[in-house]
TrEMBL record:
Protein name: Formyltetrahydrofolate deformylase
Pathway membership, UniProt: Purine metabolism; IMP biosynthesis via de novo pathway; formate from 10-formyl-5,6,7,8-tetrahydrofolate: step 1/1
Catalytic residues of the enzyme: 241
Species lineage: Bacteria, Pseudomonadati, Pseudomonadota, Gammaproteobacteria, Oceanospirillales
Domain of life of the organism encoding this protein: Bacteria
CDD domains: ACT_F4HF-DF, FMT_core_Formyl-FH4-Hydrolase_C
EC number(s) from the headed UniProt entry: 3.5.1.10
Amino acid sequence: MGDCSIHPNYGLSMSHYYRLVVSCPDNLGIVSRVSSFIAGQGGSITEASQHSDLESGRFFMRYVILADSIGMSAESLRDAFAPIADEFEMDWSLTDTQQRQRVVLMVSRESHCLVDLLYRWTANELDCDIAAVISNHEDMRSLVEWHGIPYHHVPVDPADKSVAFAEVQRLIDESRADSIVLARYMQILPPSLCERYAGRVINIHHSFLPSFAGAKPYHQAYRRGVKLIGATCHYVTQELDAGPIIEQDIHRVSHCHTPNDLVRFGRDVEKTVLARGLRWHLEDRVLVHGNKTVVFA
Ligand SMILES: Nc1nc2c(c(=O)[nH]1)N[C@@H](CN(C=O)c1ccc(C(=O)N[C@@H](CCC(=O)O)C(=O)O)cc1)CN2
């Protein structure tokens, strides 16, 4: 009997994985061809997800492969897979979980989402490196620097925002960020940044979109007399709060609640929705399809 304190899968939990994500025109034989290719390389598939969008005729798949079972680098595996991808006109990626994503967080004055993400990152719930935090206010500096993370204060001049966003772009590129998270960052990103980082910027909007886009959604909801409030994690596009939705959740409210009650209830929803959305993004579980997403949660 071995040492029961060590989980029998300990070795696997310390292994790394390749993640193959595919989007392509639906066709017969895709699954067979891809799975046979992986098996032919000796690969062990530990997780397999697929979806056929019958309306658009688009096919989506996500395979997680035990890297040690393949015996080749991610780069070599990409080279070997490329002919199949070309044959099926695939949009695809193959990532190595040992290459942790670099993430830049952006925040204004509301701290709850930032605090929650920093805790989850510290607890190793988020498999990423937080390269920096950028804010248009100084409020969060001590919290962020306590975590040993660089903090950049980039104030935004309402009269000319271009200077600030040029600095934001410089900092994001200097940080070599793979993804950017707007953790209640309350400035509208200019088209130039939306285009430059398309598909890589995640926002948490404090309403159940498409209801109450824009500023002060809880006050809008209170005036409307809603019985549910919510939060939405979505990719950022030029059109405000209209990007592909990654995750949403709700909380029941009633006539006896004040706007401040809605804000308080909403904070808890925002935190969990953003954390789930970011985790799924980091794990390559989110595939964008037009202005919608396929999420292999
Ligand atoms: N290009 C985009 N930028 C941002 C998005 C987006 O979807 N596309 N989401 C917002 C977040 N947000 C709501 O979730 C939001 C933030 C800010 C505003 C707004 O009106 N801001 C004013 C300035 C307000 C201030 O100075 O305090 C502005 O930018 O003129 C609306 C919605 C983040 N960015």
